[in-house]
Amino acid sequence: MNAGERVREAWRRDRVFEFMLPPPQFDLPVDTRHGPILYLEDVSVSFDGFKAINNLNLYIDDGELRCIIGPNGSGKTTMMDIITGKTRPDSGTVWFGQGIDLLKLREPTIARGIGRKFQKPTVFEQLTVFENLELAMASDKRVWPNLFFRLAAEQRARIDEVLELIRLQDQRSCLAGILSHGQKQWLEIGMLLMQNPRILLVDEPVAGMTGEETERTAELLTSLAGRHSVIVVEHDMAFVRSIARKVTVLHQGSVLAEGTMDQVQNDPRVIEVYLGE
Amino acid sequence: MLSHRLLTSDKGGALVLTLVALATILLPLLHLVLPADSPFHVSSYSVTLVGKFLCFALLALSVDLIWGYAGILSLGHGAFFALGGYAMGMYLMRQIGTRGVYGHAELADFMVILNWDNLPWYWQGFDMFWFTVLMVILAPALLALVFGWLAFRARVTGVYFAIITQALTFALMLAFFRNEMGFGGNNGLNDFKEILGFDITTRGVRASLFVASGIALMLGYLACRFIVTSRMGRVIISIRDAESRTRFSGYEVESYKLWLFVFSAVLAGIAGALYVPQVGIINPGEFSPLNSIETVVWVATGGRGTLYGAIVGAFAVNYTKTFFTTWSPETWLFVLGSLFVLVTLLLPKGIVGILDRLRGRKRK
After folding, report:
1. Could you give the CA distance from residue A72 to residue A92 in angstroms, rounded to a whole number?
2. Burial of B292: CB neighbours in 10 Å, binned 0-12, 13-18, 19+
3. The pTM of the whole model exceeds 0.80
4. How distant is the Cα of B158 from the closest Cα of chain A, in angstroms?
5. Number of domains in chain B
6. What would the pLDDT profile of B10-50 be if each residue is shown by its tens digit?
7. Which of A134, A189, B4, B58 has the fewest Cβ atoms within 10 Å of its own Cβ atom?
8. How far apart are CA A91 and CA A94, in angstroms?
9. A126 CB near a chain B CB, below 8 Å?
10. B241 vs A108: CB contact, 8 Å cut-off?
């Protein structure tokens, strides 16, 4: 846009400046009249000429559990970065429901509607398990209210509930740093639950877990679908098979195939790039 | 509840605070009440010396708050200390009145030498004590706000942040050295006569300044304790340990850092304002980068991230400094350097860490 166009744009008669628009309402019911809660359309991003995401189109329905698979470098993590506001795409649109344009928002604001679990479990190691959950809890996150914050009874009850769900009641006063790898993964999932977002982005939730832990994680994630939309990125095919209703295969930054696990596994293109290895 | 949270939940902190409180009461008493030939008499030299250390301890506390808890290493905190000191110095200059060498009612001596006719606009209002107090708080706060806003918004962290804070204090030092700046240039502000109408050289005023510094240190410590034990404090620790996780949990990381940085700058400014009337001079040397680095050494030596460790460190290192600079001045910088290296290599938790370890061994 050259300078002349920019001036004309600013002086348009029906111009509504962004600062005059109401702030995004993550707390109100999200408008999902048309089905999907998350829209990614024609999204592209490149780093130093390498197209990490190339014309990606992805729709996530409200309450669905979606698994995303793809070989290394297929753009899974970049896609999560775009949804959570860490990376800005070069082109394309990302909408949360009908009304919220995620590309205009920063990470902390987006976090009110979308929670993210990192690939490497990231918890606050110098704080106790209880404090980790308390920090993640959905509440006023500005500075002053937190300086004088006091935990209400129902908030404490909610933390206890989640502690039970992630089976860390006995470790509630332990520093999170001394937990095992699997327990940290669970704690991070628990933190997402405290955040209570509409969409959960879960990156490799069962990496480093034992068979039994994996099974329980599968159970937990399936039980969350419905109330939340859950997007799981995972390498472990057995795990994906055990939870997935719908699978999306990414390859070179765009969607290669989408469907049930069986459909996807029998797709010749998928076999060629990924499963057939 | 609150007293447990601030005091008794941290034994080391409670002990150090008690010692500070005792010193604040006893030293001025022993100085004022006992006759000079009594063995328990505290000389005015000692009162001023310990008074200075109290101010340094408050400065160390402010550095520990952002370095120990938020992981922001500022190598320019001396700048905020000096700004608070200059604000107080300007008040003390205005109090001199006609008693200066040139006897001008409004202008300070250095302004007369520079042939200035009027008081510069930024010297207006400093004849009033309340205005000065306001400026002691606002000047460091404003600098920290603007500087922090630019740095944190651009996500400048770690070593890069440390370097630009160092540059900030160096740039301010060069600026304050210039006579045209109107802060007395090389000589700074000195030759103070009175504060709040009292002669600044009397024993009573000396003792009062000492008590004020002690109270400021204790209140500063309690304020810092309140912050780090609140939910906000836990957010700050989280930012130090996992910044992006905190951001994705919905916290505006930049606002938290900025808030804490401004608060810490205000503490440093107050420390500077109490320091200046006790030493009787403020000059651009206070902005020197070395001062800020020394402050970081105090905190590291005492024990980073404990608050009371900063107080212990400020006293320990400064006593050592006083000892070395009277006994063999040229070795001090070598001692300081080796102290920092040794502490970093051998005592990552500082003096406080040794005490903790000893206590642990005794229990076994």
Report:
1. 23
2. buried
3. yes
4. 19
5. 1
6. 888 999 999 999 999 999 999 998 888 888 888 889 999 99
7. B4
8. 10
9. yes
10. no
Q: What range defines the domain where residue B147 resides?
A: 2-363
Domain boundaries, chain A: 36-275
Average pLDDT, chain A: 87
- At residue B364, does pLDDT exceed 60? no
DSSP characters over A161-197: HHHHHTT-GGGTTSBGGGS-HHHHHHHHHHHHHHH--
Assigned token pair, B352? 């406080």
Number of Cβ within a 10 Å radius of residue A160: 14
Alpha carbon distance A15, B80 (integer Å): 45
Q: Across residues A220-228, what is the average pLDDT? A: 87
Question: One-letter amino acid identity for B148?
Answer: G
Which two tokens mark A71? Answer: 């070989």
Do the strands A246-251 and B189-190 form a parallel or antiparallel pair, or are they unpaired? unpaired
pLDDT at B9 (0 to 100)? 82
Per the CB < 8 Å rule, is A146 touching B231? yes
ipTM of the assembly? 0.86
Retrieve residue B271's tokens: 């420390």
Q: Is B335 helix (H, G, I), strand (E, B) or coil?
A: helix
- Say whether residue A175 is in contact with chain B using an 8 A CB cutoff: no
CB B351 within 8 A of CB B309: yes
SS3 A31: coil
CATH for A36-275 is 3.40.50.300
Assign residue B140 the CATH number of its domain: 1.10.3470
Put simply, the answer to whether B249 touches A149 (Cβ < 8 Å) is: no
